[in-house]
Amino acid sequence: MAVIAVAVLIVESGADAQPTIPKHALRIEVGADPVSRPIPAGFVGLSIEYPSAMYYFGSDPARPNPLFTALVRQLAPNQSPVIRFGGDTTDWTWWPTPGVAKPPGVRYSLGTRWIQATRAAAAALDARLILGVNFESDSAAIARTEADNLLAGLGRRYIAGFELGNEPEVYGTLGWYATPQGVGVPGRASSYGLNAYLPDYARISAALPPTVPLVGPASGSPAWLAGLSQYLASNERVRVVTFHRYPLHRCFTPRTSPAYPTIGNLLSSLASSGPADSLQSAVQVAHSHGLPLRADELNSVSCGGARGVSDTFASSLWILDTLFNMARVGVDGVNIHTFRKAIYGPFAFEHAHGRWTAQVKPMYYGMMMFARAAPPGARLVSSTAPATGPVRVWATRAPGGRVRVVLINESRHRWVTTAVRAPGSAATAQRLRAPRIGAKGGVTIAGQTFGSTTTTAALTGPVHEAALSSIQGRFVVRLPPASATLLTVGDS
Question: I need a labelling partner for 430 at 20 to 30 A (CA). Which of 24, 49, 175, 461 fits?
Answer without folding.
Answer: 24
